[in-house]
## 1
Amino acid sequence: MGKRNEDMVNYNIDYNENEGMVYSSQKMKAIVSMVENISKTDATVLLMGETGVGKEVIAKLIHRKSHRRDKRFVVINCAAIPENLIESELFGHEKGAFTGASYRKIGKFEQAQGGTVFLDEIGELPLKMQVKFLRVLQERQFERIGSLDSIDLDVRVIVATNKDLLEELEKGNFREDLYYRVNVIKIEIPPLRERKEDIIALSNVFLREFANYYNKSLKKIDLETMHILLNHQWKGNVRELKNVIERSVILAKKNEQILTINHLPIEVKIDNSFPEMRERTKISLKEYEKLLILYTLYDVKGNKSRAAEILGIRRQTLYNKMREYGIDI
Ligand SMILES: Nc1ncnc2c1ncn2[C@@H]1O[C@H](COP(=O)(O)OP(=O)(O)OP(=O)(O)O)[C@@H](O)[C@H]1O
Ligand SMILES: [Mg+2]
């Protein structure tokens, strides 16, 4: 290894980039390999996960990997459409179908013919529409409002929710038959705080992208700052992280090369020490070991001999574990 000074110490980790999706954790690797398999089928997929975890990113990945990739990927946000407009949004209408229908409208399902429809926040779909949607899933046919002609539908359906659908089902807000119909393949995307490696990978990629976009010289995130990013709870998940990095990049001066704690928005600069994190986050022994190694290396600014000494293991053992966990500092 060449000459090393503090500036050269980087916080790096192997990561994958797949159709714009960045990931490094075992959890996301498992999800991507599941995506590779289900992309080959036409099965309906249910994506579950907190806000901002990347449900739409995964939905797009499924589409891009499927034979439908050259056709459209159409997003329907069920929470964003007023209840009285949702049917015509989904299925379209004929001219004169109702007062105000002055032209024929092609609905989202029809727009997606041959491609993929992504219904976001499916838990918000009104019960009346749930019945119609169920029929579409079962019969693969629909009618524009005001028309008697059924149109055959050839679309892959992906739905997403950040609500617990079983709970909604018990409350009577979600139909049981539809629940079983959409729950053919379920993918649960874990929150960002439960896949810390992705925080490192995503932060670095977002830094590169925003530095480029805003014409800044930023090249890396210093270790102290990464420590804070790793400990943050990320209630808004990847969306929040992306936003934090963007705001930090905007704050940096044009010629600054290193993103430091000074650039971070105040709400992120909260002090959560390592033991406290253990209280809050349920992680496995292996993940804990990986994090402990990461933190120790970070504390000693990448000095392997010093880290091995603190951890009470031989240098070679440390190297082996770093290789095993994909740590490259
Ligand atoms: N693995 C990832 N790699 C790169 N960008 C990601 C990744 N996951 C999420 N993002 C980015 O984070 C933001 C939120 O992702 P997305 O919209 O897919 O989340 P979501 O789960 O659909 O959120 P919501 O529940 O609010 O609809 C987007 O800007 C997306 O590009
Ligand atoms: Mg979404």
## 2
Amino acid sequence: MPVSYCSGCKRTFSSTSAFDLHRVGNFAHNQRRCLVSQEMSARGMMRNEKGQWTLPPTEEVAPWYVSLEKVVVEI
Ligand SMILES: [Zn+2]
């Protein structure tokens, strides 16, 4: 698994996809920036045991993960 390091916010990411997700803003207007931790958490991103930010868990990559909506439905 490749690790992506961001020199902007000094965080590491478990994949380039996770890295891409934390960069927001418009290229054309030079408004690219990094999300803050709270914003990444709000998007479902999580930190693994190595402290790297990862993509939100999905059923595809993490079948054990049950979304909050599903828990509510099952109750
Ligand atoms: Zn960053």
